[in-house]
Amino acid sequence: MRGAASAVMLVFLLGVIPALAQDALGILPKPEQSAAKPGTTNHSAKKAAHVTAPPKISAPATVGVSPAEFAKSEPASAASEISPADRLKIQSALLWSGDYTGSVSGDDPMLAAIRNYQKRVRGRVTGVLTPAERANLLAAAKSHEDEFGWTIVMDPATGVRIGLPMKLVSQVRDAARGTRWSAAHGEVQVETFRIKDPNIKLATLFEQQKKEPATRKVESSSLRDDSFLITGMQGLKIFSVRAYARNDEIRGFTLLFDQMMETIVAPATAAMVSAFSPFPERSSLFADTAKSVEYGTGLIVSARGHIVTDGRLATGCQVIVAAGLGDADRIAEDKDNGLALLRVYGVRKLSPLVLPSETFKKGDVTLVGIPDPKEQSSAKALTEIKARLADGNAIELRQPVPMAGFSGAAALDAQGQFVGMTQTRNFVLASTEPAAPPVRLINAMAIRDFLAAQNVASGSDAANAKDSVIRIICVRK
User: Fold this and answer.
1) The model's pTM
2) Residue whose C-alpha is closest to residue 130's, from 59, 58, 84, 77
3) Are residues 226 and 306 in the same domain?
4) Residue 239 and residue 194 in one domain
5) Strand 383-389 to strand 363-369: parallel, antiparallel, or no bridges (unpaired)?
6) Which of 249, 275, 301 is the last residue of a domain?
7) Could you give the CA distance from residue 237 to residue 405 in angstroms, rounded to a whole number?
């Protein structure tokens, strides 16, 4: 059992991730053809050679559709006509069902997976799902998603997109270079990491990860120009580490689980491989990482010490600190817009924000906030992120960057004028189709109305909006 399960993981991680990791939401690229660098080791190659497919989880041949309807269904469209969102759902479902094994013939891996599925359910092998086949496939996958509490999220600490079986890893906490999700007693652990250090190269990290911690026994390792994979045993646990490099930055994740959990974790591992993207081009909702100490951004809106911030950030806090100003009281909230009004007391020189009288509708914006201390070695310097305001107040990021600490940040137009407050949205358990944008704008008019209802006069003198940005710290323990 131990060897078979490890081989399955190896096949998935080596064969599937390269084709998926760069956020292939449209037509998937052909499988990676480049060979591993000289010196690559693969101690499990003989064990893995005989594995042609992961364990089958279920045969969703007739879920929700009668056999007659199944047989008569006609293909709805070619794979190239599937929308990016639908393709991602089907791709994930094919991994859950065990049909996505990668392509060895140079074909689109998804087309090969659909053919595998059609063979298994004894349908017509066309590479194109009929409406009935699609319904059955997605229904079966949905049952497994519900079973595991499956959800696809963005990790705000690293910027990666990752699928998480939340019922297996319900505990969340900070990690040294990212976020760690784990079971209550550590039986299963998923930890993301991000390294942006010119002194740490991919090859350097590769060698380091093979030796640390000292309890690791590497069974397979593979280093390529832009990625690496390491698998093996860590004490009594099975581990795998995958990392990708782009633009002098390294992102990845580590999976660690007890040997006794491998038959349970195997299907979730396959789905995680499908969902993972180190540098995603499209955003998902952000993972809910509410911790004992959480960092965000606030905006000074009056000379009397009033501060507006994200309502979720300021919820459940025993102590709220406005960095550099002292403790703050939460004095009001706007549940409809997700706003919280804080106040610090004492005479001091403040730079209150000037609120515009018109609503900014669309266009380029710059998000100005203070990242989580991990992202800037505990400094408090402002960081700017380029973005675009789209329909429905959705904020589209120009590049995949960590957003930890940016909820509550100021959004400025091309002239540097304040247009609204940034709010990051968290996931709903087992929901992979968010109804709200992951990052949205609470426009300046909503903030103005909120302040007016609380009899708070905002700034009136011309000032640099960046001077009103401040770090907010919520202490919950």
Assistant:
1) 0.67
2) 77
3) no
4) yes
5) antiparallel
6) 275
7) 33
